[in-house]
């Protein structure tokens, strides 16, 4: 234990010889990162919709699909937060959900839950399509 404390003190005493400009700024990359709050909110909506479907109707497929697509949407939001040009997982997830839930809404004409999920998914597809169109072309 004493040896660990001694090594830590030596490491910090040697690092004080470095000037502030020589030290790496570990928070610089975090401050440049923009969090995709809309994507995380969408992922939460999808996952909670599956959980609510299971709690209200006992639907295990609803729970499975909600958690699967909510997890994929959350992963897509994480990717967009790290690289704003990496929208493909989010676009595929929201596109698939808008098609499936849109078909269910068209057949049932019930807003809950199919209409809500189809509408939210279409909004996500629109948001991601705009991001794709605004991306500068790489030459």
Automatic annotation (TrEMBL):
Compartmental location: Membrane
Signal peptide span: 1-17
GO CC term (a single one): mitochondrial membrane
Gene3D superfamilies: Transmembrane protein 14-like
InterPro entries with a match to the protein in the record: TMEM14, TMEM14_sf
GO biological process: heme biosynthetic process; regulation of heme biosynthetic process
Top-level taxon in the UniProt lineage: Eukaryota
Keywords, alphabetical: Heme biosynthesis, Membrane, Signal, Transmembrane, Transmembrane helix
Topological relation to the membrane, as annotated: Multi-pass membrane protein
Transmembrane segment boundaries: 37-55, 62-81, 113-133
Role played: Required for normal heme biosynthesis.
Family named by the database record: Belongs to the TMEM14 family.
Protein's recorded name: Transmembrane protein 14C
